[in-house]
UniProtKB/TrEMBL annotation:
Keywords: Membrane, Transmembrane, Transmembrane helix
Species this chain originates from: Haloechinothrix salitolerans
Keyword Membrane: yes
Transmembrane segments: 25-46
Classification lineage: Bacteria, Bacillati, Actinomycetota, Actinomycetes, Pseudonocardiales
UniProt cross-references to InterPro entries, sorted A to Z: DUF4307
Designated name of the protein: DUF4307 domain-containing protein
Superkingdom per UniProt: Bacteria
Length: 140
């Protein structure tokens, strides 16, 4: 037996160069497609909120109430919305909340509301906002 024959018997014959590259190239294409799909889904779920509100100011009143000013930004300003604004006492416990109707507008809107608290309020924040306006808050 020659040396060449014994190596072929031991290790097999040489592969053609085209077949060895198909696997990694196919894997790379599938990996790119899956990565793009994951990025798209993450952007849709985690991307910018369609409706957001921010507390701009608050004023504590002597009668256990607080006046809160909020700015609301929407991706669809012509749709009504509702935001829940809450006040907290010195321990951080929520002591009052109010649903604030956000009427349709041309752009961002600034609103004021007064919230009654169970104890002396020290701060306020916006709990959340939604386009799902309850019927009792809807206005004609």
């Amino acid at each position: 037996m020659t040396e060449h024959q014994s190596l072929a018997d031991r290790y097999g014959t040489a592969r053609s160069p085209g077949k060895t590259r198909r696997g990694p190239i196919l894997f790379a294409i599938v990996a790119v497609v899956v990565s793009v799909a994951i990025a798209y889904v993450a952007f849709r779920l985690i991307g910018s909120a369609p409706l957001s509100a921010e507390r701009v100011a608050f004023t504590v009143r002597p009668d256990k109430t607080m006046e809160v000013t909020i700015d609301v930004e929407r991706n669809e300003p012509q749709r009504p919305a509702v935001c829940v604004v809450r006040v907290r006492d010195i321990s951080g416990a929520e002591t009052g909340r109010r649903e604030v109707y956000i009427p349709p507008s041309d752009g961002s809107i600034r609103l004021r509301t007064v919230i009654t608290s169970g104890s002396r309020p020290v701060t306020a924040d916006v709990f959340g906002c939604t386009y799902s306006v309850p019927k009792y808050l809807s206005r004609p």
